[in-house]
Amino acid sequence: MSDILHYTLTDFVTSYGVRIPALRVYYQVFGKALGTAPVVVVNHAFTGNSQVTGENGWWKEAIGEGKLIDTLKYTVVAFNIPGNGFGAREEDMIPNYEHWAGIDIARIFNQGLTEHLGLKEVFALVGCSLGGGIAWEMAALAPTLFKELIIVAADWKATDWIIGNCLLQEQILKNSTHPLHDARLHAMLCYRTPQSLKLKFERTTNIPLQLYNVETWLLHHGDKLHKRFSLSAYKLMNQLVKTIDISKERGSFAEAVAPITAHITIVSTDSDLYFVPQENRDTVTELREMGKPVDYYEIHSVHGHDAFLIEHKQLEQYLKKVFVR
Ligand SMILES: CC(=O)SCCNC(=O)CCNC(=O)[C@H](O)C(C)(C)COP(=O)(O)OP(=O)(O)OC[C@H]1O[C@@H](n2cnc3c(N)ncnc32)[C@H](O)[C@@H]1OP(=O)(O)O
């Protein structure tokens, strides 16, 4: 496992105008030493973290020696969203999630890359789910920094559907006696599909527990998250998902992306009920009309949003054009 490194950002002002005197930013570096190879930045999803590879790495199938993002060829940098708690101290948690928006995290990550790590260019920026929204925001803020922009299972905006689900999550987080556990049950249903659950459980039951297996599975994921994640982190991530919007204060999506020089790759899943593929199909149409270089792929899967963490072979097939040279 690579060490969890950190630096302190001083006097950071969020887009809601709140000043944070000192903010520790935690990150990890994998593969080739910085300065010796092209840099790939990987943004994690809602409950993910900077541990992208290694035994417990959330994307170990794609990142590592000889893998799609080959750590023998690339330097991989992964930041933690501040306040996610990974490798952090209690005082690094962010209690006032209402003061934050997705764009704030993008500003912090870009500052980390250019000012803290001193990078002048980044070969590829990859973001999955919430991390993909943050990647859009990073590219809009630093339109010439990234050569390749790769958006997986994500969108440049929170749709009305996402905002509605985030409200439900927020209500559960505020009102439930087991907030994290219960919010996770609802979230897991957003990340799957009816067909995925049918295929997995076929209405089977756990006889001693007198529960359906789909129920024990959901409860297991609720318990697991409750044990490994914090309530303040979850509230913050929910707020970040809800506030992703690169068109905000820039007029339109077209105006936000016009200066971006990166080659763009977008990967959706045909059954994703959370970041629905039609939104990305429309985005790709608009980008192509603008003459932007963009490749679009759809993972074929019954598993919905979670397919990006399950259908590794398809994802590798679509992304190897960027990484295997
Ligand atoms: C906006 C955003 O950023 S959203 C992105 C957030 N995404 C996530 O957080 C991903 C959530 N999904 C998961 O965590 C999934 O488990 C995945 C995608 C990582 C893996 O999916 P799958 O391969 O289908 O595994 P599955 O969901 O069955 O999980 C396996 C676990 O469930 C347990 N399990 C499986 N069936 C049952 C059951 N009937 N009862 C109880 N537990 C069960 C397994 O024992 C295993 O437990 P462990 O992880 O503690 O070892």
Structure overview:
The protein is an alpha/beta fold and 325 residues long. The protein has 2 domains: 4-158 and 244-324, 3-Layer(aba) Sandwich (Rossmann fold); 161-237, Orthogonal Bundle (Rna Polymerase Sigma Factor, Chain: A). Helix content is 38%, strand content 21%. It contains 10 helices and 12 strands. The protein has helices at 102-116, 130-141, 160-175, 179-191, 194-201, 213-228, 231-243, 253-257, 277-289, 312-323, and strands at 5-13, 19-31, 39-43, 63-64, 69-70, 75-79, 122-128, 146-152, 205-206, 211-212, 263-269, 294-299. The protein has an 8-stranded mixed beta sheet with strand order 1-2-6-3-7-8-11-12, with helices on both faces. Strands 4-5 form a two-stranded parallel ribbon. A two-stranded antiparallel ribbon has the order 9-10. It is globular. The two termini are 26 Å apart. It binds acetyl coenzyme *A. Acetyl coenzyme *A (ACO) binds at residues 45-47, 129-130, 191, 213, 216-217, 220, 224, 241, 306, 309-310. The site of acetyl coenzyme *A has 15 residues, from helix 6.
List keywords for this structure.
325 residues; alpha/beta; Rossmann fold; Rna Polymerase Sigma Factor, Chain: A; 2 domains; 8-stranded mixed beta sheet; 10 helices; 12 strands; binds acetyl coenzyme *A; transferase; HAT_MetX-like
